[in-house]
């Protein structure tokens, strides 16, 4: 994630403007010019947000200096000191809530993701995220997902084409849908087709999908048919059929992910890291 891109810089500016607005009304009460503080973890987890927090400090006051005792993606424990900061007291106070909020949120996503990724250990299956993210925070939440060991699915409607249930309902057939997307998109465009049953999955393969997403299918049905889908892509004589088919599973209960550790599956996608994760409790303490 490049924090120097205009869109990310603008988002962080908006966070600061939202909280500080026309100015911190408590500033006149602060008599100490400079201060020392540190962040401490009130519970364990996987950390995310080092460079983001540095950018917040820099935007609020270039005189804030920070020393991080942890890197993104690293595990931390309760009562662990995560970072130390020094600078103008008023600026440290102004940066406190903004920095803690984003760190607690993103670390919660990374921690939840890591717990799911651990359940895939010993397989070739990767955990992928979705577009079900908080408006305005997608790029940060997807970064947190990666810090937890997952892989990013498409960022938006612009970097991969996914033909989902509602698209299928409003198109004449999958073959034509794929052809039209190929005709009107860069040659690098990856096409994913969501299938709600095996027959639809087979149709997706023959239509030339790069990925087939098996949505809300039982592990028994997937186990029985996944190799057939793979063979169909490998043995088809149709030139548009992708021989390197990616098979993805989605719409499953995260608590039942162990039932889907099936040979032949490449990805399991989940929105739960963003929609079901809890913030990790962190706090800033001042050193007198």
UniProtKB/TrEMBL annotation:
UniProt cross-references to NCBIfam families, sorted A to Z: nadC
Subunit description: Hexamer formed by 3 homodimers.
Highest rank taxon of the organism: Bacteria
InterPro entries reported in the protein's UniProt record: Aldolase_TIM (IPR013785), NadC (IPR004393), NadC/ModD (IPR027277), Nicotinate_pribotase-like_C (IPR036068), Quinolinate_PRibosylTase_N_sf (IPR037128), Quinolinate_PRibosylTrfase_C (IPR002638), Quinolinate_PRibosylTrfase_N (IPR022412)
Similarity section: Belongs to the NadC/ModD family.
Pathways per UniProt: Cofactor biosynthesis; NAD(+) biosynthesis; nicotinate D-ribonucleotide from quinolinate: step 1/1
Cellular component terms per the entry's GO annotation: cytoplasm
GO biological process, one term: NAD+ biosynthetic process
Entry GO MF terms: nicotinate-nucleotide diphosphorylase (carboxylating) activity
Function per UniProt: Involved in the catabolism of quinolinic acid (QA).
Its EC number(s): 2.4.2.19
Pfam families referenced in this protein's UniProt entry, alphabetically: QRPTase_C (PF01729), QRPTase_N (PF02749)
Keyword GTP-binding: no
Gene3D superfamilies on file: Aldolase class I, Quinolinate phosphoribosyl transferase, N-terminal domain
Keywords in alphabetical order: Glycosyltransferase, Pyridine nucleotide biosynthesis, Transferase
Enzymatic reactions: nicotinate beta-D-ribonucleotide + CO2 + diphosphate = quinolinate + 5-phospho-alpha-D-ribose 1-diphosphate + 2 H(+)
Matches recorded under CDD domains: QPRTase
Name the UniProt record assigns to this protein: Probable nicotinate-nucleotide pyrophosphorylase [carboxylating]
PANTHER family: NICOTINATE-NUCLEOTIDE PYROPHOSPHORYLASE [CARBOXYLATING] (PTHR32179:SF3)
Statement: the UniProt record of this protein carries the keyword Glycosyltransferase: yes
Domain annotation Quinolinate phosphoribosyl transferase C-terminal: ranges: 109-285
SUPFAM superfamilies linked: Nicotinate/Quinolinate PRTase C-terminal domain-like (SSF51690), Nicotinate/Quinolinate PRTase N-terminal domain-like (SSF54675)
Domain Quinolinate phosphoribosyl transferase N-terminal: from-to ranges: 30-107
């Amino acid at each position: 994630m490049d924090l120097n891109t205009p869109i990310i810089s603008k988002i962080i500016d908006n966070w600061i403007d939202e909280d500080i607005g026309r100015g911190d009304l408590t500033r006149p009460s602060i008599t100490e010019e400079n201060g020392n503080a540190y962040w401490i973890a009130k519970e364990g987890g996987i950390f995310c947000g080092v460079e983001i927090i540095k950018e917040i400090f820099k935007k609020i006051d270039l005189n804030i200096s920070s020393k991080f005792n942890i890197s993104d993606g690293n595990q931390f424990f309760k009562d662990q000191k995560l970072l130390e900061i020094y600078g103008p007291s008023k600026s440290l106070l102004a940066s406190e809530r903004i920095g803690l909020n984003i760190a607690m949120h993103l670390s919660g996503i990374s921690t939840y993701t890591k717990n799911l990724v651990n359940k895939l250990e010993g397989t070739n299956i990767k955990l992928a995220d979705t577009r079900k993210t908080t408006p305005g925070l997608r790029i940060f939440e997807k970064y947190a997902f990666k810090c937890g060991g997952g892989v990013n699915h498409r960022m938006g409607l612009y970097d991969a084409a996914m033909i989902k249930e509602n698209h299928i309902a409003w198109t004449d057939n999958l073959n034509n849908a794929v052809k039209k997307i190929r005709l009107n998109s860069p040659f690098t465009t990856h096409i994913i087709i969501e299938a709600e049953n095996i027959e639809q999955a087979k149709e997706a393969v023959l239509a030339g999908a790069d990925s087939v997403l098996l949505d809300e299918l039982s592990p028994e049905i997937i186990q029985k048919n996944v190799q057939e889908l793979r063979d169909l892509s490998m043995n088809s004589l149709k030139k548009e059929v992708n021989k390197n088919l990616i098979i993805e599973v989605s719409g499953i209960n995260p608590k039942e992910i162990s039932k889907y550790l099936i040979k032949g599956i490449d990805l399991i996608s989940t929105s739960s890291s963003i929609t079901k994760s809890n913030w990790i409790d962190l706090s800033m303490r001042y050193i007198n």
